[in-house]
């Protein structure tokens, strides 16, 4: 057992009597890098380099044979004799397709046996070096998978959707499984949000849970999309499953690799704001529009400042990583460690990370294997404020709204050099938000081969997270000024252990029948603890947030803890007849501590089949078709993403001020209405797919169509105020998602030293709310509609209204508000009946004002005139990549895009409010309505817009095509000159080179509130994306 954790590297002897050299080529005479070459009957072996060449020392007096092996090709045995140089041509293995195995959840399966919708994402060394997180490996590379950023800051929150949104209140994120360990991704909340101040925004300022895994450690990624594939995960599989396999313990001699990445990041796009002269002219025009008779602002002594250039500055990042893999005395090992220093465009933002991964495998004998995959990481993430619900309390808002000069003007228009309140610079100097996390994840396994066809696998997973978040508002921020300094400290601890015991079998009968499968039990226990404190009123600010103990005023301490368990029994059976017909059945039973009584257990079955048409005799003469498979599957999966204890009565602590002496009385009151009938959300999905391989699989095409209905939606329904509560959890409603996905992978050209590869995918998803379990009513201008509105975009001075609506018969989260019809002209105003002019909430719409559409014809626009005005859901998403290889030179280009989605540009809503004296979106000012310029899109200066409801003026087309990356690499074989260095690879890349879009904001691929189900498709002061110039260096020893 101790050999599993102790490695002693032997000295490599150099005695030799003969040196063998050669090149390994495929059937098209192209080199095969990474092929294994072994002298038969000895332990002498090596692997081919990037050019397919190899060298190895032949033991003395050995003139026998050596064998060359490469995945997908027939093993080739070569007689040595008196030769010293060889050209080995490998023959493709016709059985390779069906024998190749892929991860499928709780085990593997032959690729030929796949009956569900499973997508493999290719992870090569070049791609993994130029990305900083796994989500970037998925963006545009997998059909049906949509990745959206909440914040482009280092480590910023992300949103991933597989085949659409399936829950209105529950979690919609897929399940992430790393080496069989379910990745826990609890958000590190801010205590200020707990007190209901709308000061914190845990959704926009959350962290990316995938950032803890270094992309360079990834061996493969499989995405399970339909219910027949995800049913093995039962109540955790409703949103799809992402299976991440890290590089496993290597075989063969020791190989050492160093990877270094150096990145310069710049602002990809600037918004068009006013210059200093334009701003002064606007301020004076606004002053006159408000009834004043003299100008109030001049440019004397003002220093013009472009705050976007001042705050969003080029940054430098670096990543260094060293890995060692090989075998020593029966112990296979992969050890990798390194550090990254990633800096954002804002100088106070960044992510520092150190991590170590140790993957070991020990073959004790022919029957028992031990494995250990352990990861340790420490991450420090510094953030800034973006989509703060109060609107003003945000550095990113101040960058755009602050006048283009140093210092402040007061309310009387007098320049105040002493003012330090709410400018971009004071935000930099007076705001901290740092999260520090330490994490240990370890997967220990033992596999016992009981017979030739039966294996008993046992696995123990331990995942420990310790996180803290320290936040500081200094006196130079509005919030900190009111509180005389405000600090918050939150600490979170989670400990999860998972035990699984599985029997896995693979048995062939009578040459034609093959049965394989998995059966076993899984137990998962997770403990969660959170505490937070907020302090205000500091005597001095030298210690900033770390001096929270010196605060003179404290909020009550927040403490939350819960423990949740999941016990499961699962089974999967795969039957194959002549490798032609494949049937799969899966069953899982889950029992969750989140539910009480009769609904504690739920059962999730699935059935699927495949017909490999190419194995039929009538296809024997169709030589150009190498694979043709039809798949059909059905299954049910669940979603238990609801807070623990909702089926039990809870009590909350409340504190009250005692009259008279000012003391505090603390008591406990009921905190919820328990619902003993609460149960799982259940998704039922049918999938049909076709896989086509042409010309020995040089061209592969897959298409899938699916229909997914999710019922018993977990929702919070309003209850009568007489109960003492606002709402309770109930199961009501049905959501439908349906769509088509297509993927193409092809080798377009292949010559002796040149290769051109292409991959592309496109996805169409349509979602609809079938029912909500609510009584129809009138909402706005819509009559007899069942539904509800989402949460307000802000509580500040921007849009104090919901953007989204959830109506039966409509897509999820449609935009709801007022339609507009341009700007009121003088002629149109004059030609109206003076006694019945168009009004807005009883007030006349004057020349230069925005015209709101009167839906009911009463000439008075009110909330009853609101209608559906947009849709955040895209018509389709797509991505394509192409790569060229010439000798040792490679060029890769990647694109991704979306068409038809719309987005609420809430940032522009504030920048086009021409009644406020902050900086503005330039077109709104220079093209503002005047008596001389009435044919315009923008209202007059001084016009007070409606902020209580959303209008279609700020709903924009979010369609885009992004040049995601261009990467040029060259590999130099150094074996000829340096004995212990195999190769040097240099890559130069540009990420986010250009975006073709009509969107006026920083980037259309954003969702400021990330995973908030009540705020969808909104851009509010989001951290802008950068354009990254990357130099990568890789040395293999």
UniProtKB/TrEMBL annotation:
Topology relative to the membrane: Multi-pass membrane protein
One Pfam family in the UniProt entry: CarbopepD_reg_2
Annotated Gene3D superfamilies: Carboxypeptidase-like, regulatory domain, TonB-dependent receptor, beta-barrel domain, TonB-dependent receptor, plug domain
UniProt keyword list: Cell outer membrane, Membrane, Receptor, Transmembrane, Transmembrane beta strand, Transport
Location in the cell: Cell outer membrane
TonB-dependent receptor plug domain mapped to chain residues: 111-241
CC terms in the record's Gene Ontology section: cell outer membrane
Family listed: Belongs to the TonB-dependent receptor family.
UniProt-recorded name of the protein: TonB-dependent receptor
Protein species of origin: Candidatus Cryptobacteroides faecigallinarum
């Amino acid at each position: 057992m101790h050999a599993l954790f102790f490695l002693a590297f032997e000295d490599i002897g150099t005695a030799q009597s003969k040196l063998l050299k050669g090149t390994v080529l495929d059937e098209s005479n192209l080199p095969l890098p990474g092929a294994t070459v072994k002298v038969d009957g000895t332990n002498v072996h090596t692997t081919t380099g990037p050019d397919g060449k190899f060298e190895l020392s032949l033991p003395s007096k050995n003139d026998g044979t050596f064998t060359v092996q490469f995945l997908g090709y027939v093993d080739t045995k070569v007689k040595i004799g008196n030769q010293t140089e060889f050209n080995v041509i490998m023959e493709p293995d016709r059985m390779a397709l069906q024998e190749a195995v892929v991860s499928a959840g709780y085990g593997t399966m032959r690729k030929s046996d796949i009956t569900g919708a499973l997508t493999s994402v290719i992870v090569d060394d070049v791609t993994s070096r130029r990305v900083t997180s796994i989500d970037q490996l998925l963006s545009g590379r997998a059909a049906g998978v949509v990745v959206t950023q909440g914040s482009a800051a280092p480590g910023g929150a992300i949103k991933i959707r597989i085949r659409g949104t399936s829950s209105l209140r529950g979690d919609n994120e897929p399940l992430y499984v790393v080496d069989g360990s379910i990745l826990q991704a609890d958000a590190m909340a801010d205590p200020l949000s707990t007190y209901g101040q709308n000061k914190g925004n845990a959704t926009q300022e959350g962290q990316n849970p995938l950032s803890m895994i270094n992309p360079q450690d990834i061996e493969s990624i499989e995405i399970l999309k339909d219910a027949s594939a995800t049913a093995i995960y039962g109540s955790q599989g409703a949103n799809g499953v992402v299976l991440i396999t890290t590089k496993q313990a290597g075989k063969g001699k020791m190989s050492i690799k160093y990877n270094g990445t150096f990145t310069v990041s710049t602002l990809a796009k600037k918004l068009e704001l006013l210059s200093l002269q334009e701003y002064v002219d606007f301020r004076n025009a606004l002053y006159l529009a408000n009834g004043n008779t003299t100008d109030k602002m001049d440019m004397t002594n003002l220093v013009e400042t472009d705050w976007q250039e001042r705050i969003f500055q080029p940054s430098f990042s670096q990543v260094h990583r060293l890995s060692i893999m090989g075998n020593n005395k029966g112990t296979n090992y992969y050890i990798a460690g390194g550090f990254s220093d990633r800096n954002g465009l804002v100088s106070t933002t960044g992510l520092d990370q150190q991590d170590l991964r140790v993957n070991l495998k020990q073959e004790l004998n022919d029957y028992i294997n031990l494995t250990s995959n352990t990861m340790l990481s420490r991450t420090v993430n510094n953030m800034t404020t973006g989509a703060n619900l109060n609107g003003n309390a945000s550095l990113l808002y101040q960058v755009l709204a602050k006048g283009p000069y140093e210092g402040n003007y007061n309310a009387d228009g007098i320049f105040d050099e002493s003012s330090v309140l709410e400018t971009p610079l004071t935000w930099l100097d007076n705001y901290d938000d740092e999260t520090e996390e330490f994490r240990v994840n370890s997967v220990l396994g033992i596999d016992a081969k009981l017979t030739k066809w039966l294996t008993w696998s046992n696995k123990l997973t331990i995942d420990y997270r310790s996180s803290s978040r320290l936040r500081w508002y200094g006196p130079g921020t509005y919030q900190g000024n009111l509180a005389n300094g405000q600090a918050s400290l939150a600490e979170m601890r989670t400990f999860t252990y998972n035990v699984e015991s599985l029997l896995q079998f693979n048995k062939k009968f009578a040459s034609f029948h093959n049965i394989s499968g998995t059966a076993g039990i899984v137990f998962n226990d997770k403990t969660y603890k959170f505490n937070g404190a907020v302090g205000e009123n500091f005597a001095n600010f030298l210690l900033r947030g770390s001096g929270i103990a010196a605060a003179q005023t404290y909020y009550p301490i927040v403490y939350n803890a819960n423990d949740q368990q999941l016990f499961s029994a699962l089974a999967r059976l795969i039957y194959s007849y002549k490798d032609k017909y494949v049937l799969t059945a899966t069953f899982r039973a889950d029992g969750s501590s989140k539910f009480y009584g009769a609904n504690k257990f739920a059962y999730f079955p699935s059935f699927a089949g495949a017909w490999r048409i190419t194995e039929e005799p009538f296809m024997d003469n169709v030589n150009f078709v190498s694979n043709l498979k039809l798949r059909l599957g059905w299954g049910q999966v669940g979603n238990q993403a609801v807070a623990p204890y909702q089926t039990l009565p809870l009590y909350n602590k409340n504190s009250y001020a005692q009259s008279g002496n000012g003391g505090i009385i603390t008591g406990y009151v009921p905190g919820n209405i328990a619902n003993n009938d609460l149960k799982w959300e259940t998704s039922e999905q049918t999938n049909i797919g076709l896989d086509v391989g042409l010309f020995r699989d040089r061209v592969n095409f897959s298409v899938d169509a699916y229909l997914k209905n999710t019922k018993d939606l977990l929702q919070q329904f309003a209850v009568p105020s007489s109960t003492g509560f606002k709402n309770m959890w109930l199961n009501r409603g049905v959501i439908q998602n349906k769509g088509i996905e297509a993927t193409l992978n092809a080798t377009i050209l292949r010559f002796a030293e040149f290769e051109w590869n292409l991959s592309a995918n496109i996805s169409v998803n349509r979602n609809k709310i079938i029912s909500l379990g609510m009584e129809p009513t009138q909402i706005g201008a819509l009559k007899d509609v069942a539904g509800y509105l989402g949460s307000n975009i802000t509580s500040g001075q921007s849009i104090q209204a919901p953007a989204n609506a959830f109506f039966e018969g409509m897509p999820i989260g449609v935009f709801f508000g007022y339609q507009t019809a341009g700007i009121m002209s003088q002629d149109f105003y004059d030609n109206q009946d003076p006694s019945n002019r168009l009004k807005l909430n009883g007030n006349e719409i004057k020349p230069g004002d925005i015209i709101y559409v009167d839906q009911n014809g009463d000439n008075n626009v009110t909330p009853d005139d609101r209608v559906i005005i947009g849709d955040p859901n895209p018509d389709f998403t797509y991505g394509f990549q192409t790569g060229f290889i010439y000798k040792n030179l490679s060029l890769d280009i990647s694109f991704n895009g979306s068409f038809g989605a719309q987005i609420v540009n809430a940032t522009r809503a504030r920048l086009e409010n021409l009644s406020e004296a902050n900086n503005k979106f330039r077109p709104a000012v220079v093209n503002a309505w005047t008596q001389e310029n009435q044919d315009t899109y923008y209202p007059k200066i001084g016009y007070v817009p409606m902020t209580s409801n959303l209008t279609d003026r700020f709903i924009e087309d979010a369609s885009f095509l992004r040049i995601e990356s261009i990467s040029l690499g060259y590999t130099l074989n150094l074996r000829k000159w340096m004995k212990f260095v195999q190769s040097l690879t240099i890559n130069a890349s540009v990420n986010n080179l250009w975006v073709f879009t009509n969107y006026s904001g920083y980037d259309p691929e954003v969702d400021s509130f990330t995973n908030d189900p009540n705020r969808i498709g909104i851009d509010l002061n989001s951290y802008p994306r950068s354009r990254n110039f990357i130099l990568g260096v890789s040395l293999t020893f």
